[in-house]
Amino acid sequence: MSIMEFTPNKQAKTPLYEQVAQRVSKMIEQGTLRPGDRVPSIRRLSQQLQVSINTVKEAYGFLEDRRVLKARPQSGYYVSARRPAPPAAPSLSRSQISPTRVSLGEVSQMIIRDTLNPELIQFGCAIPDPALLPTDKLARMLGTEARRHPIESVSYAVPPGCEALRTQIARRMVQAGCNLSPEEVVITTGCSEAMMLALRALCAPGDIVAVESPVYFNFLQLIEQLGLRALEIPCTPNEGMSLEALEYALEHNRVKACIVITNFNNPLGCLMPEGKKRQLVEMLGQKGIPLVEDDIYGDLSFDEERPSVAQRYDSQGEVLLCSSFSKTLAPGYRVGWIAPGRYQKRIEALQMVMNLCSATPTQLAVAEFLANGGYDRYLRSIRREYAKKVACMSEDIGRSFPEGTRVTRPRGGFTLWVEMPTKVDSLELYDRALKHGITITPGPLFSASGKYRNCVRLNAAFYSERTAGALATLGRLACELATS
Amino acid sequence: MSIMEFTPNKQAKTPLYEQVAQRVSKMIEQGTLRPGDRVPSIRRLSQQLQVSINTVKEAYGFLEDRRVLKARPQSGYYVSARRPAPPAAPSLSRSQISPTRVSLGEVSQMIIRDTLNPELIQFGCAIPDPALLPTDKLARMLGTEARRHPIESVSYAVPPGCEALRTQIARRMVQAGCNLSPEEVVITTGCSEAMMLALRALCAPGDIVAVESPVYFNFLQLIEQLGLRALEIPCTPNEGMSLEALEYALEHNRVKACIVITNFNNPLGCLMPEGKKRQLVEMLGQKGIPLVEDDIYGDLSFDEERPSVAQRYDSQGEVLLCSSFSKTLAPGYRVGWIAPGRYQKRIEALQMVMNLCSATPTQLAVAEFLANGGYDRYLRSIRREYAKKVACMSEDIGRSFPEGTRVTRPRGGFTLWVEMPTKVDSLELYDRALKHGITITPGPLFSASGKYRNCVRLNAAFYSERTAGALATLGRLACELATS
């Protein structure tokens, strides 16, 4: 095994052990190391790469967490026996690219409601694990900030919202390549209000909105509610929306806006590469089509570095960047935001009429957490946790689901997209799973045209030893459907 | 002076001193006692009415607070010299009742934004005085409730929202004659989200909505945003919407929904009498038109008893009752609610798509305040304060505004509607007042058809000795405009 081409990059933010881990991963991907192979001993790799013993130990530990390697006592590390294959790229069949009037049932509502039932195993809704959230610190900050700002905390945080929070957001987004001033950020009641305001500001009933496929179901419902039409653009599970397909679609349809989750897309978990982000902004910019960019999972990268956002390539104010702290800090705080570019005035006016503004105390608490709560340290720890959970769950899916099942390999976030054999009807699986106290999200919810009947989205945030049995049950139910 | 017909009602919730005060007020209204007259001494009235000395003292104090009486040292109580006259009832000219497409400017936004400027005297926005709000107790409850419910407080309060809060609301609304179960209440982001959801659930673009005239400007903006049309129904300043005018309007227009603020209407402060509430519900019920009832000021009665809501007369689920704690506890908490009758499923589904849900921690804190914060005691004290402020401000308007100015006599809430001589342009007055650091709400905002150019709405919540000079300035500016 030759790993001579390894050159540690001391300027990179990625720590050395992760660079080593990436190198080993690559050799596995390329087939240099195969399932079952023993990897070099810690001492040997340390010599080969000219890094310390501890660095290699950390690297192997990192890969073990992600189930890439497996330690065998008194023997060393081995490449894990079976790794789930990534799903085939969705068909790019062009005939499918036509706008569809959305009409979805109540399943998605049921899945969100399922979260209220503590008896259920939560593989359905894409919510973070509350056990990992900094609940104590947030509770303390809620109280102290309300006392510290007695008048502000009971008063309206009139749009654009609480200044301390907008300042923190603008500062943090520098990491994502954004050059935002606090004045350019508008606080919203979660990312959902941000998306709602964006679509209302940009579109009139009947207009066409281009979305990824599969697409987060709430976008489809919003599009339906506002009387718009969804145009589904195929995605590849590694790089997100196909720009070739988008270009074709834009030529054949009068698209009014485009929604993209650029980083760790829900449900696929894919990361749009830097060059593609730039290309997307340029393509839409040339046609004068605004981009609504959802970056809600951007802080949950499994790598050390936070990916940038497409908004950074925008010079026209035509990208409306939306996000929230619902996946990282506290869904129930309903603290989201939008940087609406040249649509800011319209968005603020709309917000004042629809909801006036968001709750002030939770804005103050989140601002304080970002300023003095150790948000970066906290993020590092949950990112590691979610990476581990995603890896474990993927592997266990490979073990218990029907032969031929495919699973995405997300690079951030905590959702997995599982493609089962075509015989498996995910709506039927949803019903059967619910009888076993397990909730999942069936694939057809992620399409306006009823695609993905044999797919499910699973939330890995709650995956642990405690819930592993439930996943095995789910796999068994899927196997029954596959062979029935 | 004969007050023999006084019979204390010991079963009534109204305390004895207030019954005495009402009796004295009536004699003034009837002209038995005239401005400048000395009222009976405390001892004498106590003997005449067979009540204690203390009861009469309290009654006179109550009337002094409201500027009905004036104490002169060593001499006794006198009927106040001058009381502002109520405005003439708005013209019921039927030719005006035709639907109008709303198109309002940015003045209302500016007025809400003005609240951010602590240098300005806040006579514009209808917000409570933060100095009267229970900020300390709320801040403490925010922290303790978040700690007591660590998981719930960071989790989504999925529609219908936090159960503890819905239970408290259902219990409290018994006082208003409502028979609601907690399951029939849906928590919203303030009353504005409640209204928005109601209109979205009931109407489609182009539909006609009947509203009071003058009408709270945010309703007009909402109607505009949703592409609906407003049909303005005249109000009398004492009893609210004219049912005769409404009946006529319903015969000549296809009205899809009707919005009424039944209790202490904004801006008039009037209270729709019980019989009229019933009649309103019956009239709309017969025509199958849903009523969106806004009761946001219902808890702020100047009398001891809380008025009931029209919803109590509804047996079809066709009244959507909306309210919030923004006028009583904390605007910035954004805790409102709707009891949507038979539209509940639609409202919840809509809310999940538009905003998902409201912030949880503020819901928990308000629920705790209602359960254990002494809300009733607190309400008694602020109601007394607002009654005092409204009375003082009315009287001082009479002193400094141009001859012929008329002012409403609200029976609850804290807004005053001031009708000035026709020469006074309230938009011009707004501009001039702002230069003096005073913000007001010009009358045309309260109409879709540009009425009320010579009217302003004033917020009495901030009226005090500190701001009395600003009111005198405002009066002077109005006088200048009246004589220019």
Question: TL;DR?
Answer:
The first copy, chain A, is of the alpha/beta class and 484 residues long. Chain A is built from 16 helices and 16 strands. In chain A, 55% of the residues are buried.
Could you walk me through the main structural features you see in this protein, from its secondary elements to its overall organization?
Two copies of one chain form a homodimer. Chain A has 484 residues and is of the alpha/beta class. The first copy, chain A, folds into three domains: 16-79, Arc Repressor Mutant, subunit A; 104-131 and 377-483, Aspartate Aminotransferase, domain 1 (Alpha-Beta Complex); 134-375, Aspartate Aminotransferase, domain 2 (3-Layer(aba) Sandwich). The first copy, chain A, is 41% helix and 14% strand. Chain A has 16 helices and 16 strands. Chain A has helices at 16-29, 42-49, 53-65, 107-114, 135-148, 150-154, 163-172, 190-202, 217-225, 243-252, 274-287, 344-354, 360-372, 375-400, 426-435, 465-483; strands at 69-72, 76-79, 121-122, 186-189, 208-213, 229-236, 240-241, 255-260, 291-294, 319-324, 335-339, 406-407, 415-419, 438-439, 441-442, 455-459. An eight-stranded mixed sheet of chain A has the order 4-11-10-9-8-5-6-7, sandwiched between helices. Chain A has a four-stranded antiparallel sheet with strand order 12-13-16-15. The first copy, chain A, has a two-stranded antiparallel ribbon with strand order 1-2. In chain A, helix 5 (135-148) packs across helix 13 (360-372). The longest helix of chain A is centred in the C-terminal third of the chain and has 26 residues, at 375-400. Chain A is globular. Mean pLDDT of chain A is 90; it is low at 86-95. The interface between A and B is large, with 61 and 62 residues.
